[in-house]
Design brief:
Layout lengths: L7 E7 L6 H6 L8 E6 L6 H8 L2 E4 L6 H14 L4 E4 L11 H9 L5 E5 L13 H18 L11 E4 H4 L13 H11 L4 E5 L13 H22 L19 H6 L6
Parallel strand pairs: 1-2, 1-4, 2-3, 5-7
Antiparallel strand pairs: 4-6, 5-6
């Protein structure tokens, strides 16, 4: 890697993604990516076999631990691999992989520490197939998050994200949930650390094979966000200290909990 070209590692948190993993990988701009890591969170289909066939760096959880646990392994392994920029691309083909250069550009140019691919910038997500109730909940929660975090983002609930190494090196991943709320916990941590967050517009696809949370799952997720925002505000005001929001710089060596999650099929 040249001094002027950061190492870009794509991480794919996968769960039963056999029908879409190949399509997602095929559209990644190979000249912009140095390594692709797939973490299979105990899938019951051929996700792991397809990842091996494609020659991707594969880690297999010995059971389904959850979306947050999957991301923890993704980021740890990317950092161990020497990533300068880590991009999370869902392998369900919902987000456009070809936009990766746009996602990483603000970090490459030193203008941001974290970049979110926003479905609410540019085109209207409902025209792309987003259910109306998800759109309404997204708008409500985003307005509330902007008020609490003091930002003006179009949305926070995207699965297409890029992180500079310095950002990931300071957040306390271990204290975050193993479930979907992980996505917002890491945002709260980054905001508390005064990381620069940028957005770029990304269209999305909604089709049967693309993973999507149910109404009940989305409702639990929404309530979890409200509780997270309350904890963040109490921490910000100095009322109740939350260690999870504080900086944690560490070295990425063998992590016992990660190793416990991996099955013998680790590549």
């Amino acid at each position: 890697m040249s001094l002027n070209k950061p190492k870009v590692v794509v991480v794919m948190p996968a769960y039963n993604a056999a029908q879409t993993l190949r399509m997602t990988y095929a559209e990644l701009p190979q000249d912009s990516v140095d390594l692709v890591i797939v973490v299979d969170d105990g899938s019951s289909d051929q996700t792991a076999a397809i990842a091996r066939e494609l020659g991707l760096e594969l880690f297999v959880h010995n059971r389904n631990y959850g979306y947050g646990a999957n991301q923890k392994t993704c980021y740890r392994e990317a950092m161990r691999a020497g990533a300068d920029i880590v991009v999370m691309v869902h392998p369900d083909y919902q987000y456009d992989p070809t936009l990766l250069p746009d996602i990483i550009r603000p970090i490459q140019e030193g203008k941001a520490d974290v970049v979110l691919g926003s479905r609410l910038l540019g085109g209207h997500p409902m025209a792309q197939g987003m259910p109306w109730w998800k759109y309404a909940a997204n708008r409500f929660l985003t307005q509330l998050e902007n008020a609490i975090f003091g930002l003006r983002l179009a949305e926070y609930h995207t699965g297409y994200r890029a992180f500079g190494r310095a950002a990931l090196d300071q957040v306390n991943l271990d204290m975050n949930s193993d479930n979907f709320i992980f996505d917002q916990e890491i945002i709260a941590q980054l905001v508390n650390l005064n990381m620069r967050i940028a957005e770029v517009p990304v269209p999305t696809r909604y089709f049967p094979e693309a993973s999507s949370a149910s109404f009940v799952q989305s409702s639990v997720y929404g309530l979890s966000i409200l509780w997270l925002l309350l904890k963040y505000e109490m921490h910000r005001l100095g009322l109740v200290r939350q260690r999870s929001f504080e900086s944690l710089s560490r070295r990425y060596t063998a992590h016992p909990r990660t190793e416990d999650l991996l099955a013998e099929g680790k590549k």
